[in-house]
Design goal:
Elements (H helix, E strand, L loop, with lengths): L2 H18 L17 E11 L11 H18 L3 E11 L5 H17 L4 E8 L5 E11 L14 E5 L4 H10 L10 H4 L5 H9 L5 E4 L4 H12 L2 E5 L9 H10 L6 E5 L8 E2 L2 E10 L4 E4 L5 E3 L10
Parallel strand pairs: 2-3, 7-11
Antiparallel strand pairs: 1-4, 2-4, 5-8, 5-10, 6-8, 7-10, 9-10, 11-12
Helix pairs in contact: 2-3, 2-6
């Protein structure tokens, strides 16, 4: 399908929500409004074939879902409200049209869940492989965005959901096992914790927050670096999806989770569930610059970032 026809096909699939958002697909730019008293949040994320997904492993609707989920999770980590999405696609000429249609359907299904339009983007021919770049526009009341830099010594550390099952599924795929995607939703159809982020922002409960798509150890390191602090994580408290040493390793370093990691002042009462998502206290922010893991037997050891890192 040529570019003009492809854009028109995506435009029809995006439907009336895209048009109600403002003057979007079909123009040089989208025209969007933000509520009075809000600041814009803008995030962008690549989804690259053979880096973030493989066609032989991931059905196209899962790739589309995961593509948008990456951007929505970033908005969630700031306590933001998603407003619109923009998609740029570079596609090889021999890619079946059915793959593209199912990719778009998966992305739009998740967009509908959060009531956001696909407001624009770009298309191009790729010499090899699929490249998708998602841009998500969100907003937050002025001055209320939750940053990584607000943690203070004495704060408690919390994480949403369970940890380790997404990368466990990925490891099974790497080992050659065929999986049923709907049986492993944490990997194939992750749920961005947008409602949790908004709850924490509205109630001013989280001075620092991040999503842990790159792994708990790596993303906790970002909070500590931006806040100028250290941290201790209690191994026994981690909501690991699997037991034993392997389960602990996956929970600490696995990534691909799209859960939220946040700090809270000790006097704050953090619910055990927010928007139906379990919340677990897993550690504490410390003075100094070191991250430490407290083992179940009380022994302390350095906790080094060992999650995903491009070029690492």
């Amino acid at each position: 399908m040529n570019e003009k026809s492809l854009i028109e096909r995506i435009r029809r699939a995006a439907g009336t929500r895209s048009q109600r958002a403002g003057r979007g697909i079909g123009n040089d730019c989208a025209v969007l409004s933000l509520p009075r008293g809000h600041e814009a949040l803008i995030t962008t994320d690549f989804s690259l074939e053979d880096i973030h997904f493989r066609r032989e492993w991931h059905p196209p609707d899962s790739v589309g879902h995961r593509c948008l989920a990456r951007g929505l999770s970033d908005i969630a980590a700031m306590g933001g409200i998603p407003r619109a999405a923009f998609l740029s696609l570079a596609l090889p000429a021999d890619l079946p049209q059915s793959w593209v249609d199912k990719f778009i359907a998966g992305l739009l299904k998740l967009a509908a869940q959060f009531s956001i339009p696909l407001a624009g983007g770009d298309t191009a021919q790729s010499p090899s492989g699929i490249l998708a770049d998602i841009v998500v526009l969100g907003s937050v009341p002025t001055g209320q965005a939750i940053l990584r830099s607000g943690a203070q010594p004495g704060d408690f550390l919390y994480v949403t959901g369970t940890l380790g099952s997404a990368v466990a599924a990925l490891n099974q795929l790497r080992a050659g096992k065929k999986l049923r995607p709907r049986s492993h939703p944490k990997h194939f159809y992750p749920e961005p914790r947008v409602a949790v982020g908004q709850f924490l922002r509205e109630r001013k409960l989280a001075p620092a927050m991040i999503d842990i798509s790159d792994g708990l150890s790596t993303d906790l390191g970002h909070i500590c670096e931006e806040s100028g602090t250290g941290a201790v994580v209690y191994a026994a408290a981690l909501p690991a999806a699997a037991a034993g040493k392997d389960g602990l390793t996956l929970a600490l370093h696995g990534g691909d989770e799209y859960e939220l990691l946040f700090s809270a002042r000790p006097e704050c009462r953090i619910p055990k569930q927010i928007a139906g998502v379990p919340v677990t206290r897993i550690g504490e922010i410390l003075s100094g610059k070191q991250m430490t893991l407290a083992n179940a037997d009380g022994q302390m050891q350095p906790l080094k970032p060992a999650g995903w890192e491009h070029f690492g």
